[in-house]
């Protein structure tokens, strides 16, 4: 039996014990990998604002990609949604940027192919993606649009025989500067429906430019992409996607994954603050002995524990195939709001040291803002839940 010696101090209600023994081995593998291979280099990479390409080889050796997909990767059958969520939490607990690199590839990009591709397309692309021989990206957000992308997508696709011509622009696309496969979403000018296309690296007219001067997710290479008469064969159009409703099925699952990232940020920040409070001495004693410091730590632990419980049930709904948009939207809105509180309280415990990258907490404090914003803002997710509970749409 695997012992619980590596269990997180933040797991106050022993949520990890809900995993099977085999699942927990995978989680501990990810935990050990992030602690030993990734943590020592993230501050330097974050300060430089560069993605260390050698990380791809390190992830490849672990065989962690493809875990959610039955028949692909090293793990068969497909892992439970609880394990997939806890893995996202675990990677984020060490570094949100590295977790996002992996999540874009293993979640958004691979799931788009898995859920929206034909069997031939899944067999063509998922094995090399699971092996991380090919890295994926997901291009939906546009420079002039955010949450209105469902009805206002400006990137277009025009079919000419067995070829599609894509024109437009995308922004904030993680991994796009070096990805081998980019899932590009575009509006078919003939039927006005959203369709998905796999654009391969080196395709003429596809130009990704790295976005500089970010204050969050600095390790992630987000790009602004221009598409000028990009020619994509019909064989690269995702055959199972024919409307934004189909795309929404993908976003429903990945939005829940972002909520798990929010939990990971909370845990990472809380653990840093707890360790610091035990070590930092003021007035002749550790600041952990001060009531106000304990108050911040306990409030943080409460947010973590409540969020974890919500996400456990979300995973159960996913495994049962009965979860809905409003379930993932409530989780994303609630957990990332609690995350903002925890990173602020945790940074507060560090005092002036909390703004110095050397202590790690500043990285979590900054990266939390990106997680709070993407995969639907709090306001948009609130309106999705509001419509579900009232029966009334408050969307403009």
From TrEMBL:
A Pfam match: Acyl-CoA_dh_M
Domain Acyl-CoA dehydrogenase/oxidase C-terminal: 247-389
Acyl-CoA oxidase/dehydrogenase middle domain boundaries: 137-230
Stored SUPFAM superfamilies: Acyl-CoA dehydrogenase C-terminal domain-like, Acyl-CoA dehydrogenase NM domain-like
Record key words, sorted: FAD, Flavoprotein, Oxidoreductase
Alphabetized Gene3D superfamilies for the sequence: Acyl-CoA dehydrogenase/oxidase, N-terminal domain, Butyryl-CoA Dehydrogenase, subunit A, domain 2, Butyryl-CoA Dehydrogenase, subunit A, domain 3
InterPro entries xrefs: ACX4-like, Acyl-CoA_DH_CS, Acyl-CoA_Oxase/DH_mid-dom, Acyl-CoA_Oxase/DH_mid-dom_sf, AcylCo_DH-like_C, AcylCo_DH/oxidase_C, AcylCoA_DH/ox_N, AcylCoA_DH/ox_N_sf
Cofactor: FAD
Family annotation (PROSITE patterns): ACYL_COA_DH_1 (PS00072), ACYL_COA_DH_2 (PS00073)
Transmembrane is among the record's keywords: no
Segments forming domain Acyl-CoA dehydrogenase/oxidase N-terminal: 20-132
Membership in a protein family: Belongs to the acyl-CoA dehydrogenase family.
Name this protein carries in UniProt: Acyl-CoA dehydrogenase family protein
Species of origin: Amycolatopsis minnesotensis
